[in-house]
């Protein structure tokens, strides 16, 4: 079973999700998305599979959000995705991928909805 977490160790939600994944008995593939940002295609896929809009996957309190004028509703999804890839701090976290789906785990306990049952 492969589980991937797009992780930021400074984020309490991300740390909580990682803790719960490991408590389930799984050792996930941990992607430090700030050091290794997902490609535009991967990011768009994660957002779509999580059932989110692109704006829902953005961190709006980051300085880049204001600096780049991303609050303007005229800024479309393509430009938002480009900004997130160029400035990964704008990607909300943690995204978790399991065989049961993709979820933006805010709060971290939301990961429980997509964790396979613990193997005996």
UniProtKB/TrEMBL annotation:
GO terms for molecular function: arsenate reductase (glutaredoxin) activity. SUPFAM superfamilies: Thioredoxin-like. Keywords: Arsenical resistance, Oxidoreductase. It catalyses: [glutaredoxin]-dithiol + arsenate + glutathione + H(+) = glutathionyl-S-S-[glutaredoxin] + arsenite + H2O. Its EC number is 1.20.4.1. PANTHER family: ARSENATE REDUCTASE (PTHR30041), ARSENATE REDUCTASE-RELATED (PTHR30041:SF5). This is Arsenate reductase. It comes from Massilia violaceinigra.
């Amino acid at each position: 079973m492969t589980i991937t977490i797009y992780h930021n160790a400074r984020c309490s939600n991300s740390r909580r999700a990682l803790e719960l994944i490991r408590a389930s008995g799984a050792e996930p593939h941990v992607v430090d998305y700030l050091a290794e940002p997902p490609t535009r295609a991967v990011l768009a896929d994660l957002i779509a599979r999580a059932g989110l809009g692109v704006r829902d996957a953005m961190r709006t309190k980051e300085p880049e959000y204001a600096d780049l004028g991303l609050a303007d509703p005229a800024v479309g999804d393509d430009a938002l995705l480009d900004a997130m890839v160029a400035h990964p701090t704008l990607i909300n976290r943690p995204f978790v991928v399991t065989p049961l789906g993709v979820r933006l785990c805010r709060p971290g306990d939301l990961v429980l909805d997509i964790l396979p049952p613990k193997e005996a």
